[in-house]
Write a structure and sequence with these properties.
Layout (H helix, E strand, L loop, with lengths): L9 H8 L27 E4 L7 H8 L17 H9 L3 H13 L9 H34 L2 E6 L4 E6 L8 E5 L7 E7 L5 E5 L1 H4 L5 E4 L19 E5 L9 E5 L5 E5 L3 E2 L4 E3 L3 E8 L5 H5 L9 H33 L19 H15 L6 H19 L14 E2 L13 E4 L6 E12 L2 E3 L2 H8 L8 H8 L3 H5 L49 H4 L8 H12 L13 H14 L4 E4 L17 H14 L2 H10 L6 H5 L9 H5 L32 H5 L11 E4 L3 H12 L3 E5 L3 E5 L5 E10 L7 E7 L6 E7 L1 H4 L12 H23 L2 E11 L1 H16 L4 H12 L4 E12 L3 H10 L3 E5 L4 H10 L8 E6 L3 H15 L33 E6 H9 L3 H8 L4 E5 L3 H15 L3 E5 L5 H6 L2 E5 L6 H4 L3 E3 L4 H39 L12 H11 L2 H9 L5 H6 L5 H4 L6 H25 L7 H23 L5 H24 L12 H6 L2 H28 L3 H9 L3 H15 L41 H11 ...
Parallel strand pairs: 15-27, 15-31, 27-30, 28-29, 29-30, 31-32, 32-33
Antiparallel strand pairs: 1-8, 2-3, 2-4, 4-13, 5-11, 5-13, 6-7, 6-12, 8-9, 9-10, 14-33, 16-17, 16-26, 18-19, 20-21, 21-22, 22-23, 23-24, 24-25, 25-26, 28-36, 34-35
């Protein structure tokens, strides 16, 4: 079918009509073999024609159907502002209600006030909001105009050159030319780059906040071009997907004139808003413009959320409506009854023009509507405006809090959702990410295991313990570490220990190796601050101290590489030297790290391929040795070398002979390279071969062209901290990544030789595959090698099956290596380290050629492109050979344990939702006090739904014997009934319960409809830890808890994978960390550190809720009290709808006289000081229980308002009962008394008194008298026939007025004052006690707080002799997928020395007894009292092997690396 567009597309229609557009992937087995003719429709695809001479006609036709590049983020235009804004405001039903009253008042039969008077309150509110909206929209208009008028160079077909135009002139299909530091104006497909490799570097800080550079590459086939790009020579048509908001997804293909296709993806798309960096010139074609760009489609603005107080307020407004209906109905019935008492029509009952009178029923109906108009103030229209102003003030003070300001990132707290500030004070569940939220997201290389041998890197651990304790010469020492290999050799045989300890000897001279780079102009002023311009490059991350046992093996492995061109080892896959070499090559190569220099940190290093043989540098070194006649060098070197070989054996042409099985199995080698364990030992880049006395001849080494390639100041710019940590670790062992291009990657070896690998293909990391692979051609062997790194749970399943090996010895050794590696992985996880497995695979030429063909066709496919690419990746990433694994430490943020302890003390239940493996997450949970050593921790791991259900039932049955569920409190009419189930009493304190569950179990819970049991179990737990959870599972858990339990939830995270969780919660908080700003842009609030959450919730959250809740209750009280005065008067005026108060006085009462005090109260009042709130977190529970605003407080305030209105009306009535005063003379003291009573009521509610509070209250009262005097003196005929002229002047001269105005408020407020006095004296609420503590002097207050906290401390732990139920596996469930690995315990490691655990872990790797599934792990032994088994019959003897494990443990098959998947264990 042809394109569904105009016939002017004759060329394209002709091609399709003749069937020339067949998919090039029809013959591939991976793709669908039957395609038929391709159909192109604008509803499913986007077709882009270039704007040049050949395709101009087609471009002109198509471009009209696509959006231009002009953007408009404003809501209104000059013509639509008034009607559209009014329409939006009348969506609020309160405004609509008052509009209805205005309309009713215009009907003569129901007119109560003057028509203009009725309109004034509504018009004022609408005008204030309209002005606010107009100012905000005008700011958006100015910003849009600035963006649309930005300049860019666009190719002009008529002039055959690029012309400077505005952004708004860009159209789809235009060729755009961009230079360095320019912002991309639209979504552009990259066709040309001035970089020789076809790369363009982007900074996406405007899009996602990430400052590290991203690489984009030219579409395949366009990288090898001349100096300039010629748009007239572009004869291709682009077909891509429709506009969508997926920032990291893009697919399409380019059709060439010969009907061939070239696929492209997001790696070739420049997104609008990104900044070009380090690229002098880039040219591309626009595919999406304006509001169809991905950035604009993601810019949906903040979501509207309704706070809990607002929902409560809407319910109470409905009560007020019901009360209004009853009062109006009473007035209508009373009017009819009163008129019925007259036998003749009274004189005030005026007939109509025909002399008739209204029937009583119709008159009653008219009076009902009249009463609605009269009592309209009962519905507080000004409350909505006041709430918005109060929230603005609260956000201002929240933003100004210096305790929530982070100096390092220069960011204060950000409020992105104005309407839910008070929800911060009512949170009951907190869902937190782990990496980057609880931890710093600064990945530090900590340990590694290679071929079953573990290297603990103790010196590196010592450095990490004191990362900030650097001496005065730390800067010089850091510069020394950056020197190249020969430069450091010039100072001696190694970092020798001085008398002071760990510092090395000083250099005899300073030497720097000149670096060869493409020097481009640096961005002026961009990195003028002290912050490092390179992400993930702090000293703690990049300075890695090598392990003294691994260092000599790395040296042997580097020498082994020299022999590859001549002789290959018989068993390369099992050779220690080969595996170590491949391990560090994989660390250096398998990534997307960009190389730059410290002097020009944003300049990419591109080195020419090394053309010299491997032995060139070695020969020159030997010649240099002979020239210098350093006979003592070999002795000095061999004294520090890790092996028994002399210098000649090390640097001769022979293969190292230390690769024996004994050496393979040894995890701790004798001897050692002298690495100091201080801050950082010397990470040798090229070996230590020059003695300390060789300074005179050092320049000769620097002049070597090969050694001169060494980079002294290389910087690595990675997209993730994990990648940066691995590359820094490889560099510490002198496998240094020195340059990277799309086609080649160069690594410098310890000898100083540079190996350049041809990059054949890169399979990037994604959350589904959980791995990354790079396919390279080895420069020495010519083999095609696949290096893969990824999660251990994935890589272990992709390894080659040992059973398929022919050699029995090899099979045994492979199994042994895997078992040891798995044991080391578990050890790393228990230490809280993030683990990655490293593997490789050698592919034949024929297999790779066939796979590359499939890959190319999958890339060119538009339909199911992601699925096809995934399938091709799975075809390549299998039958891998395990090289080793790494352990990376992610340190806890400062203040995380204290924050979690405070939140738990506030009654908040914490859930941690993370994608990390279970052991790592559990260890971090103990470190941050999420779990305690005395807690009973249930760990549920199963894939089977029936098994999951039985485990939940078993856990619930046991936990109910010890615990009371932490169910959310339900109140009956505002009261909290006592719990019917008392807490169980026992001699020993009942341990707290924690739950650990993984992603597969969560799938079983959601798919098996087990949500109810799962939530019931979590109610008994004080902490829940969900591991290996996906972003979708995170959001599902939040929604499940929020909806089923009906609690207030808060989600906090820092990465893009936390966005769905943040948006699903009632309150979403983003942390502006190292993973960009996507979480912040999707959040309601943004903070810089997790510790800020403590004050944000406990102080500001409590204040915001307390202020706003009490202000809302006060508004309801104020309006009901005032309206009832008019209602009581109806009983004395025949329910005629008249008033005793002037209309203008009634209007001014709400707009001016009583409006400011609630605003000041809602913004500045503090019921408890910040210090006390932080010291006593349990005070936060008042907000969780809605103590300030609930059904009880609402109706108590209503009853109080009714009582006060009775007093304020009837005391003046009884006083003036037998007098001859007129109606306004009676109404003025009533109005004055009610104002004084309402203002004094407000004063009694205020907990904080400042000068501003006093001025506002006193000013409001005085303003009433000033306005009344002026109004009564000037208004002669304002309200004919009864006018208030001179009324106030007359009252002020009457002593009775003063006496009534003094006694009546006292009588009205006496019950409330008495109630508050009793509450303050005998009240048991926590807030009342805290308020008493606040009034004490500082020293006594501290003692009182300390005494309070000591009473709140839990009972002491039971004596060690008593057994505690701290380990609860379920033996009755059969094991699934359980192999030969030892059953591990998720119990935290005992507080022993880290080195002791490392030694035990190393020994256990060589102990064959550890393979017994019932034996205890040496790294985490459990005493009999710590290991209790839970079965149907109760407790089983300790040390018994769980049933179902002994038989299954004998099986050994792929996937056996997993532990028990159907266990409930500690």
């Amino acid at each position: 079918m042809a394109l569904s567009v105009d016939s002017s597309w004759h060329r394209w229609q002709w091609r399709v009509g003749d069937g020339l557009l067949h998919s090039p992937s029809e013959a591939t087995p991976l793709l669908s073999p039957v395609k038929g003719r391709e159909s192109y429709s604008l509803t499913q695809q986007r077709v882009v024609f270039p704007n040049n001479s050949i395709y101009h006609q087609d471009w002109a036709e198509v471009s009209r159907r696509y959006h231009g590049n002009r953007i408009r983020t404003t809501k209104y235009t000059l013509l639509t502002f008034l009607p559209q804004n009014l329409l939006e405001q009348f969506h609020r039903w309160a405004n609509l209600y008052f509009l209805l009253l205005v309309i009713l008042n215009w009907i003569p039969a129901m007119e109560v006030f003057h028509r203009e008077i009725t309109m004034l309150p509504l018009a004022t509110v609408l005008l204030i909001i309209m002005v606010k909206d107009g100012v905000e929209d005008f700011k958006r208009y100015r910003f849009d105009r600035e963006i649309n008028c930005s300049h860019i160079h666009i190719y002009e077909r008529k002039e055959q050159s690029y012309v400077q135009k505005h952004w708004r002139d860009v159209r789809v299909g235009d060729f755009v030319q961009m230079r360095s530091n320019e912002i991309v104006p639209a979504d552009i497909l990259l066709l040309f780059s001035s970089d020789p490799s076809g790369l363009c570097h982007l900074e996406t800080a405007n899009l996602d906040g990430e400052t590290n550079l991203k690489q984009r590459r030219v579409v395949k086939g366009f990288s090898q071009q001349g100096v300039q790009f010629e748009p007239e020579c572009f004869h291709n048509t682009i077909v891509c997907e429709k506009p969508n908001n997926h920032l990291n997804r893009f697919k399409g293909y380019m059709e060439h004139p010969d009907q061939t296709r070239t696929g492209f993806g997001s790696e070739s798309l420049l997104l609008r808003g990104c900044t070009i960096r380090n690229t002098e010139l880039a040219v591309g074609i626009v595919v999406y413009a304006g509001h169809e760009t991905k950035a604009m489609l993601n810019n949906s603005g903040p979501r509207y959320k309704r706070s809990k107080v607002e929902r409560r307020m809407n319910t109470d407004i409905s009560f007020c409506i019901g009360l209004l209906f009853l009062m109006c109905l009473t007035g209508a019935v009373g009017h009819s009854l009163w008129n019925g008492t007259f036998r003749e029509h009274p004189p005030f009952d005026v007939p109509d023009a025909e002399g008739g009178f209204l029937p009583l029923a119709l008159g009653g109906f008219y009076m009902f509507l009249t009463m609605v108009i009269l009592l309209q103030v009962l519905i507080p229209i000004s409350l909505y405006v006041s709430i918005e102003l109060v929230k603005l003030g609260q956000v201002f003070f929240l933003h100004s809090d210096l305790d929530l300001y982070d100096e390092e990132s220069d960011l204060p707290v950000q409020c992105r959702a104005l309407n839910i500030v008070e929800d911060l004070g009512q949170i009951q569940h907190v869902f937190s990410d782990k990496t980057g939220t609880l931890t710093e997201n600064k990945m530090v290389f900590r340990r590694c295991t290679i071929m079953g041998s573990e290297y603990s890197h103790r010196e590196n651990a010592k450095r990490l313990e004191i990362p900030k304790e650097l001496d005065s010469d730390s800067e010089e020492w850091a510069q020394y570490q950056c020197l190249s290999f020969p430069a450091r050799w010039a100072q001696g045989p190694g970092p020798l220990r001085g008398q002071g300890g760990d510092q090395p000897l000083r250099r005899c001279q300073s030497a720097r190796v000149p670096i060869q780079t493409h020097c481009r102009q640096r961005s002026a002023g961009r990195w003028e601050n002290a912050q490092s311009p390179v992400a993930f490059s702090s000293s703690i991350e990049k300075d890695v101290t090598p392990d003294k046992n691994l260092l000599p093996k790395v040296r042997d492995a580097a020498l082994w590489l020299e022999t590859l061109p001549n002789a290959k080892p018989a068993e390369p896959s099992l050779s220690t030297s080969a595996s170590i070499a491949d391990f560090f090559l994989a660390l250096a190569i398998c990534n997307s790290v960009m190389v730059s220099t410290s002097t020009e940190p944003r300049q990419r290093v591109t080195m020419p391929p090394s053309t010299k043989a491997l032995g060139t540098s070695l020969e020159k070194i030997q010649q240099l040795f002979q020239k210098l006649k350093l006979s003592s060098l070999s002795q000095s070197f061999s004294s520090t070398a890790p092996s028994d070989n002399d210098l000649g054996e090390h640097w001769g042409p022979h293969v190292p002979t230390t690769d024996s099985k004994e050496r393979d199995d040894a995890s701790v080698c004798s001897g050692g390279y002298s690495t100091d364990g201080g801050y950082r030992s010397s990470t040798w880049d090229q070996g230590d071969i020059l003695a300390s006395g060789s300074c005179d001849s050092f320049e000769e080494v620097l002049e070597d062209p090969v050694l001169g390639l060494a980079s002294p100041d290389l910087c690595y710019e990675a997209e993730s901290p994990d990648e940066a940590a691995l590359v820094h670790a490889a560099r510490a062992y002198s496998f240094t990544l020195v340059s990277r291009t799309p086609e080649q990657v160069t690594v410098r070896l310890p000898q100083g030789t540079c190996l350049t690998f041809d990059v054949l293909c890169t399979l990037g990391f994604d959350s589904v595959r959980k791995r990354m692979s790079v396919v390279v051609r080895h420069p020495l062997t010519g083999e095609i090698v696949v290096y893969t790194k990824g999660a251990d749970s994935v890589i272990m399943d992709l390894l080659e099956d040992p059973a398929c090996m022919n050699d029995t010895d090899v099979e045994k050794k492979v199994r042994k290596i895997r078992a040891r590696t798995q044991k080391h992985l578990d050890l790393y996880a228990r230490d809280g380290l993030r683990t990655l497995c490293i593997a490789k695979k050698v592919v034949s030429e024929e297999d790779f050629r066939r796979w590359a063909s499939f890959r190319h066709e999958a890339e060119a496919s538009l339909d199911n492109r992601d699925e096809l690419l995934m399938e091709t990746a799975q075809h390549l990433e299998n039958q891998l050979t395990l090289l080793g694994a790494t352990g990376i430490e992610d340190r806890l943020q400062e203040g995380v344990p204290d924050t979690i302890a405070a939140l738990r003390g506030a009654g908040i239940q914490l859930w941690v939702l993370t994608g990390d493996k279970q052991e790592t997450a559990v260890n971090i949970a103990y470190a941050c006090r999420l779990l305690d050593q005395t807690d009973t921790v249930y760990s549920v791991n199963t894939e089977n739904q029936e098994t999951c259900e039985s485990i939940l039932d078993c856990a619930l049955e046991e936990v109910k014997q010890f615990q009371v569920p932490r169910k959310p409190a339900h109140k009956l009419f505002g009261f909290r009934p006592p719990s019917e189930t008392p807490r169980p009493t026992s001699g020993a304190s009942v341990p707290q319960v924690g739950l650990v569950i993984d992603g597969k179990t969560l799938n079983a819970v959601f798919q098996g409809k087990l949500e109810k049991k799962f939530l019931e179990l979590t109610q008994y737990c004080r902490s829940v830890l969900c591991c290996r959870s996906t972003p979708l599972q995170k959001s599902m858990i939040v929604k499940l808890v929020r909806d089923k339990l009906g609690v207030m939830t808060l989600s906090i995270g820092d990465g893009a994978n936390d966005v769905s969780m943040i948006q699903a919660a009632d309150v979403g908080i983003g942390i502006s960390g190292q993973e960009g700003m996507q979480a912040v842009m999707s959040s309601d609030f943004a903070i810089s550190r997790f510790r800020h959450l403590k004050k944000l919730l406990l102080v500001h959250g409590h204040w915001c809720y307390s202020r706003l809740a009490r202000m809302v209750v006060y508004y309801f009280y104020k309006n009901v009290c005032y309206v009832n005065l008019l209602f009581w008067y109806q009983f004395f005026c025949g329910f005629s709808g008249s008033t005793m108060i002037d209309y203008w006085q009634m209007i001014f009462f709400n707009l001016f006289f009583t409006s400011l005090p609630p605003l000041v109260f809602g913004i500045l009042d503090k019921d408890v000081s910040a210090e006390t709130l932080l010291a006593l977190p349990e005070l936060y529970k008042s907000g969780q229980d809605s103590e300030c605003y609930n059904l009880l407080t609402f109706w108590v305030s209503m009853m109080d308002a009714v009582y006060q209105s009775l007093i304020c009306f009837f005391i003046p009535y009884l006083t003036y009962r037998d007098s001859d005063i007129d109606v306004f003379t009676f109404g003025t003291p009533v109005n004055t008394i009610s104002l004084a009573t309402i203002l004094l009521h407000q004063a009694m509610e205020m907990k904080t008194w400042t000068v501003l509070h006093a001025l506002v209250l006193l000013g409001s009262f005085l303003m009433y008298f000033v306005v009344s005097l002026v109004y009564n003196a000037t208004c002669v005929t304002c309200n004919s026939p009864t006018n208030p002229y001179g009324v106030m002047e007359g009252q002020l001269s009457d002593p009775t007025f003063y006496l009534v105005c003094f006694l009546t408020p006292v009588a009205a407020l006496l019950p409330r004052y008495f109630f508050l006095s009793l509450q303050g004296t005998y009240g048991k609420s926590l807030i009342s006690k805290a308020q008493k503590i606040d009034k004490l002097p500082t020293d006594k207050r501290d003692l009182a707080i300390q005494s309070w906290r000591s009473k709140q401390m839990p009972a002491p732990a039971p004596v060690p002799g008593e057994a505690q139920p701290t380990h609860r596996p379920v033996p009755a469930v059969p094991q699934q997928d359980f192999g030969a690995s030892t059953p591990k315990s998720s119990r935290p490691p005992r507080p022993t020395c880290r080195e002791d655990r490392e030694v035990r872990g190393g020994r256990s790797s060589g102990d064959p007894k550890q393979e017994d599934p019932c034996s205890a792990d040496s790294s985490a032994k459990l005493s009999p009292r710590d290991h209790l088994l839970l079965g149907p019959s109760g407790l089983v003897a300790s040390g018994a092997c769980p049933s179902g494990q002994t038989g299954t443990s004998q099986h050994s098959r792929r996937g056996s690396h997993r532990r028990s998947q159907s266990s409930l264990t500690i």
